[in-house]
Amino acid sequence: MINHTTLIAHRHPPSAGTGGREEIRNPLRFFMWLTQTYGDIVQYRSSVEPAYLINHPDYIRQVLQSNGQNYNKDTFLNKYMLEALTGQGLLTSENPLWREQRRLIQPAFHKHSLPKFAELMQQAVQRTTVRLDAAAAEREPINIANEMMRLTLDIVTEALFSFDISDRAAEVGEAMDTMTAIGKPRHRKVRAAIELLDQIVYAIINERREHPQRERDDLLNMLLDARYDDGSAMPVKQVRDEVMSLLVAGHETTANTLSWTWYLLDQYPDVVAHLEAEIDEVLDGRVPGVADFPRLVYTDKIIQEAMRLYPSAWSISRRALGDDEIGGYFIPAHSIVAMSPYTMHRHPDFWDDPERFDPERFTAEKIATRPRYAYFPFGGGARQCIGNNFALMESLIIIPAIAGRYRLRRVSDERVEEHALVTLRPRGGIPVYVERRS
Ligand code: HEM
To answer: How far apart are CA 61 and CA 374, in angstroms?
Structure first.
């Protein structure tokens, strides 16, 4: 709550002016430069409108959580880009629709619901290892980033919609690429991509409506069977929006996390040695299952640390509904407030030697010494990622299944550049040679 008599209105955060071309060409570098030059809060002119970048755990907690009701998701990314594809699904909708839908969908992602997905995740990763075996035998490099995209798409469609997308994975991947790379919803190619994705999503829905599978307790049945308080069913368009949102939110984010993990592992042989020792001891050649998770402690730390350095959702933003005060500065109503896990996760006050990949930052003791929002790869507050445990579970199956069986060696030692689109991708992917471990 603001006390207007103290008129913090007189204190404006430092202003960086416009990011200009740099902001557009390399928004990550621009954000890093802003935090390094101006500190934990700064006003900048984004290409679209004035905005504030906040980079302190207390400020982030305020916007996402403690004063979260003063902010919504009416931002350029959401309204202009994501909504063109996902409509009024969970990712972009606002109250009261959002609350109703979240309440409905939440149980499918509850910790107790997740173990039933383990088996299909195991089967999916085994389909990937068939391809990796072939690459190993032929000694031909493959792009592990593409493999991760294919794998996570496969998993999310199987888990949530019991739909086998494997024969269309390439098309879907390409359409998603077009969507995010062009970033202009009215562009001809983007419209064509949306149309294709729509076809696939409606095929998923229509197939189920025509051939109900009562025995399935997947998310699709849940959406189709749901009844609102007045007894009405969810409109098909709403089902479509939810399915599309989950496809968009649930596949590329996880794929990037895994790809960056392979990239980091390639540079840190000590970490690989420790990882392999854990996998060999716990699994002895098996693909992991839920019962193994408590013992895959080091693997878990590796995933957390990879998400620190390369948080797939690299920028999270909100619009202020009313005036606010952040860190003693005045934030007028309607402002855009941006938060970046990428810059926060490199803040030297909270992370020693921030560029170093060090999974030991994620021991229980170390985690307890850091403020909650020094690390927020899944956001926070009411709009926190609904799929966070799903993504972690998936990663805990995929990393050991692959690292237990192979070493992935990058074809070139060159640094891989971050490509900050909607998600943080490795530019050019991660070409690797696959070597079978004996
Ligand atoms: C490593 C993988 C993932 C990362 C880093 C990630 C990150 C995030 C973040 C930061 C948000 C909040 C955005 C905001 O506050 O503006 C979010 C929201 C969301 N995520 Fe994820 N996510 C991941 C995986 C998944 C998966 C696997 C699913 C589903 C299968 C999923 C579904 C969603 C949905 C539906 C929302 C919107 C939630 C709402 O507003 O109610 N995500 N995600």
So the answer is: 10
